[in-house]
Amino acid sequence: MPIDPATGLVAALDIGGTKIAGALVDGEGRVRVRSRRPTPAREGGETVMAAVEAVLADLAASPLWETVGAVGIGSAGPVDASLGTVSPVNVPGWRDYPLVERVRRATGGRPVTLVGDGVAMTAAEHWLGAARGHANALCLVVSTGVGGGLVLDGRIHPGPTGNAGHIGHVPVDLDGEPCACGGRGCVERIAAGPPLARRALENGWRPGPDGDVSAAAVAAAAQAGDPIAVAAFERAAQALAAGIAATAALVEIDLAVVGGGVAGAGEALFAPLRRSLDTYARLSFVRNLTVVPAATGTDAGLLGAAAAAMPPGAGATG
To answer: Signal peptide span per the entry (predicted)?
Structure first.
């Protein structure tokens, strides 16, 4: 079914280690219908797929479903857009999982476009957010993991498999801890929410009476001036800055957009991130690199997945 050029209505899926979100999105970036399920990340692959199908069933129950012409998926990675498969680091039950074919089957044969979650967030920010109008930018998702995507010469650059810009698995600590990806000392292993919170606990931070040991709780403590929580965010910011500076040196970006749950810490993250960038980004052609918060919020993955599935001229950027 072709997409109506007046609305560009597509079904979008945002699949991560903690939640599976779905929406029907029009060509102006408006979310018309939405659904959400927790990701059964420690269960088998078919259990995870059942949660995806439940989200799709919620969307298909809408009277707008008949106008949907395509499906876009932004998934935790790595993904392989050329094969239509996903192998999310944080979802062990999916390894080379044929997600595109399964979603195509579940949506009545509609065309399906797959990108990594970082590329999806980048597409959203370039279409409607903080990277709009920028020709060369890196966009990051800092949450349960760390993903990223690139805008080069005014266009989203997903790469052959849909993983280009995946800053989370750039090594920044040569003697660092092993990462779930099989590498060592990756940005994600230091800056993502779970390792950030774990580092704070290991260094003596203690949660409040509610017992919350999440990165959000560490962020609240850092905002209140707790020195151990502040140090945990400084370490995470240093890892992010090293990865951003390396990316800038390679492809000459002038903007880094940071979103995701950890970025919700605000200046607890962004202040040390800017300071660390001053240390790492010293070459003349990267020195003016700007770091800003993402603008598309919690809908970034959905909007970016929708953008990936929209044809040129339907509303999303290329």
So the answer is: none
